[in-house]
Structure formats: structure tokens, C-alpha cells
């Protein structure tokens, strides 16, 4: 992980800890290339967590947005999940 990304996650963790009570619902938003395998990888990352997952394909069909609403226990857990899904090729976290 590069220094800029690491700094972003540190700031995110600090902001989440001051703005929310934990455990708390968190909404993840991702953009992935429209590929059933990649969408499934995102869904699998949140398997057995009680997550509500919605997908929406772009107009051109090249990309799919994946919204995941899930209860997380702490800001650290939120950041760990971002890091976990960042290994999916082509994923963009919003």
C-alpha cells in the first residue's frame, strides 16, 4: 500500500470514530468492470455478514456499481474490508 492510500485510511478511520457510534451501519460503494466473477468476489467479501447488496449496470454496460449496506463493529473493520476488496482487479472504491 502506498503512503497516500495509507494516509487516506488513517483519516477515514479517525473521521468514522468521531462521527459514528459503533457498531454502526456503513454503506460501501464500489465500481467494478461488468464481469460476473468480479461482482461475485465483492459479494463474497461480505458473505455471512447480513449485508444488503445492490448492483446497477452502467448505461454502456461496461461497469457495474455495487452498493453494500452492512453493520460494521468499528472503524478498523471498515478499513480492513476496503483493504480486502482492493485486491479485486479493476475495483474502484467510492
Please provide a written account of the structure.
This protein has a four-stranded antiparallel beta sheet with strand order 2-3-1-4. The model has no long low-confidence stretch (mean pLDDT 94). With 94 residues, the protein is an alpha+beta fold. It contains three helices and four strands. Strand 2 (52-57) and strand 3 (63-72) form a beta hairpin.
Give the structure's gist in a few sentences.
With 94 residues, the chain is an alpha+beta fold. The protein is 40% helix and 30% strand.
Instruction: Report the top-level CATH class.
Output: Alpha Beta
How many domains in all?
1
* SS summary, helix count: 3
Structural class, from helix and strand content? alpha+beta
How much of the sequence is in beta strands?
25-35%
Strand order of the largest sheet: 2-3-1-4
Helical content stands at 40-55%
Which fold name is given in CATH as the topology?
Answer: Alpha-Beta Plaits
Beta strand count = 4
Mean pLDDT: 94
CATH architecture descriptor:
2-Layer Sandwich
Describe the sheet with the most strands: 4 strands, antiparallel
The helix/strand series, from N terminus to C terminus, equals HEHEEHE
From the spread of the alpha carbons, the general shape counts as: globular
The CATH superfamily title: ACT domain
User: What distance lies between the first and last C-alpha atoms, to the nearest angstrom?
Assistant: 17 Å
Low-confidence stretches: none
Q: What is the rounded Rg?
A: 14 Å
